[in-house]
UniProtKB/TrEMBL annotation:
Keywords: Membrane, Transmembrane, Transmembrane helix. Pfam families: TM_HPP. It comes from the Eukaryota. This is HPP transmembrane region domain-containing protein. The keyword Membrane applies. Residues 104-136 are annotated as: Disordered. InterPro entries: HPP (IPR007065), TM_HPP (IPR058581). It comes from Ditylum brightwellii.
Length: 335
């Protein structure tokens, strides 16, 4: 009891609000999710609630999913002792997962020190030596099979009410972009080089209102993805004697790969990198782009959360991971 009490008190700040129980029925009816029979079967079996707990153990990251019956009180499920228990069990499961590589390495080391038998040792004299099977066409067959597509179901179409909400949200955000562009042009009419980079915002509102739960749509990817990609694209404009056609291709490619490595991939950031790499924009345009990306989070949050089937954002920085900060997570992704 004493150790449990200390554990609860020591983890009170970390555990409070860390676990969110979701209604499985809302996940089944979520227009942004592909229709799968697994969630529907769980809901029909009386399992109505689900919660995920992240773990980071030994360089391995994952999530443990917990289920509860529909009639369970979420206030009881989110009590501090229950949250501490779920987090501790997730860490134990994560430890088992992390030990997999160690077991495989030990098995491989044991196999390397085991003498292998020569397959031709017991063959009769003058018998033909078996030749290894040629597998040159296997990668090609695998590539062709994968190119034909998998067995995943086509995502369902969005209900009419959700499509109308998407229309309202996209119109509101793009109206704000258009007004901001007019304001910048009228306010900085003497500075002809100052302008607002509009095209990436079309992709941004598509993500925010059409794919609200996608990681690329979250504020973390929007802000950090645009910041990193735009800075890389502008940095390439300072490289002397670099052909424009090469810069426009190379700078966005580097920006996209870096953001993917850092876990902050954001498609509009790739589009902005193409525009910024053209050499017709400077750091003021870059800062205006970042500022408007931050401002557009306000209507996206206000409009998306009107619907009971939507939640935006699903997270701000990173999913709960103990005491690790956002920058420590970015550093880990970069390794």
């Amino acid at each position: 009891r004493i150790s449990l009490g200390r554990s609860i008190r020591g983890n009170e700040q970390q555990s409070r609000g860390a676990i969110l129980w979701r209604d499985i029925l809302s996940l089944v009816n979520d227009p942004d999710k592909s229709k799968t029979s697994r969630l529907a079967n769980l809901q029909q079996a009386g399992v109505g609630l689900a919660a995920g707990v992240h773990f980071h153990v030994g360089g391995h990251s994952g999530m443990v999913i917990y289920f509860a019956k529909s009639d369970k009180d979420t206030d009881v499920l989110t009590e501090l002792p229950n949250q501490v228990y779920m987090i501790r069990m997730a860490e134990i499961i994560g430890g088992v997962v992390a030990s997999t590589d160690a077991r495989r390495a030990a098995a491989a080391s044991k196999h390397q020190h085991t003498p292998t038998e020569d397959p031709t040792e017991n063959l009769p004299e003058n018998s033909p030596v078996p030749q290894p099977t040629r597998c040159g066409l296997r990668p090609i067959r695998t590539w062709l099979r994968k190119s034909l597509g998998g067995n995943s179901q086509i995502p369902p179409s969005m209900p009419l009410t959700q499509a109308l909400l998407t229309l309202i949200g996209a119109f509101s955000s793009l109206t704000l972009v258009s007004v901001a562009d007019r304001f910048i042009i009228s306010s900085f009419e003497r500075l002809e080089d100052v302008s607002l980079i509009i095209p990436p915002f079309g992709a941004l509102v598509t993500l925010q209102y059409g794919l609200t739960a996608a990681p690329a749509s979250q504020p973390r990817n929007i802000i950090f993805g645009q910041s990193v990609a735009g800075a890389i694209a502008l940095a390439f404009t300072y490289i002397p004697n670099l052909y424009p056609w090469l810069r426009i291709a190379l700078a966005p490619a580097v920006a996209i790969s870096v953001t993917a490595k850092l876990g902050i991939i954001h498609p509009p950031a790739g589009a902005a990198a193409v525009v910024l790499a053209s050499g017709n924009f400077d750091w003021i345009d870059y800062l205006l782009l970042l500022l408007l990306n931050v401002i557009l989070l306000v209507p996206a949050i206000a409009i998306n959360n009107i619907s009971q089937k939507r939640q935006y954002p699903t997270y701000w920085g990173i999913p709960w991971s103990g005491s690790k900060s956002l920058f420590s997570q970015l550093k880990k992704n970069a390794k």
